[in-house]
Write a structure and sequence with these properties.
By secondary structure, this protein is mainly beta. Helices cover 3% and strands 37% of the residues. It has a single domain, classed as Jelly Rolls (Sandwich).
């Protein structure tokens, strides 16, 4: 089902050197810096308060830029333009995919690589996803050792992915050595009323603990993965990861925009939080 999407991750290897991972890394849960945190405490958050048109916190977020398909034959070019990613002045980060007059597409991909790398916790975001054939929003994480270990050895946790042709379905997935791409360990979640997830905001989360990852939507848990599910392959999720938010256009998995797809499309993020779940 996702055999071709795996190589989009490989591009990240060229975006940051090994030294970048060690710079500005926020202490993870369980270190001295967070020793006073209790279960249920918010230990880190981004609420995207700020003036309309401003950039998200540059001490936390980096805009990855470029095109070339991102290994998955995607159509967009990611930019650092405020026309593709900006605060809306109402407490949201808005990632906007646009179609230009020449038929090309621009969008945005933001990452905390080298700046914030949590290990464990309830990692959640409240998001209103976009809609339409060929539209692919995602909230996910990659192992902070990506430059050294490569993908999929570094691991990947997809908290939420949606492809526009499935408006009432989101997917939670992990990728690791021996279970990546089309063989990733993945579970779909259907909207309980069968409505489009683009109609309103929803909270997408993973409860991430040593040896366990549980996905939920609006507090409803729908899948837990443990080392027993990797068919004897390495479990690579007990280490720091960084967070990624992006909005892709086209690609082998979602397919491509057609006459029914309207632009611009927007992915609105109300907050991203890490909550102590120890």
């Amino acid at each position: 089902m996702r055999a071709a999407r795996s190589t989009r991750r490989l591009v990240a290897l060229t975006l940051a050197g090994a030294a970048a991972v060690a710079v500005g890394v926020t202490p993870t849960l369980g270190t001295a810096a967070t020793a006073q945190a209790a279960t249920g405490d918010v230990v880190w958050s981004q609420d995207f308060d700020g003036a309309a048109g401003s950039a998200p916190d540059r001490s936390v977020w980096t805009n990855e830029t470029g095109g070339g398909g991102w290994g998955n034959n995607e159509l967009e070019t990611y930019t650092d333009s405020r026309s593709n990613s900006a605060l809306d002045g109402q407490g949201n980060l808005v990632i906007t995919a646009k179609r230009k007059a020449d038929g090309s597409y621009t969008s945005a991909r933001l990452t905390t690589q080298g700046k914030y790398t949590p290990q464990y916790g309830r990692v959640e975001a409240r998001i209103q996803i976009p809609r339409g054939q060929g539209i692919w929003p995602a909230f996910w994480m990659l192992g902070a050792d990506l430059p050294q270990s490569g993908w999929p050895g570094s691991g990947e946790i997809d908290v939420m992915e949606n492809v526009g042709k499935e408006p009432a379905t989101v997917h939670g997935t992990v990728h690791g050595p021996g279970y990546s791409g089309g063989q990733g360990i993945s579970t779909p979640y259907q909207h309980p009323q069968g409505w489009s997830f683009a109609d309103t905001f929803h909270t997408f989360a993973v409860d991430w603990k040593p040896g366990s990852i549980t996905w939920s939507v609006d507090g409803v848990a729908y899948r837990t993965v443990t080392p027993a599910d990797t068919n004897g392959n390495p479990w690579v999720f007990d280490k720091p990861f960084f967070i990624v938010l992006n909005l892709a256009v086209g690609g082998n998995w979602p397919g491509y925009p057609d006459a029914s797809t309207t632009f611009p499309q927007q992915m609105k993020v109300d907050f991203v939080r890490v909550i102590d779940n120890s």
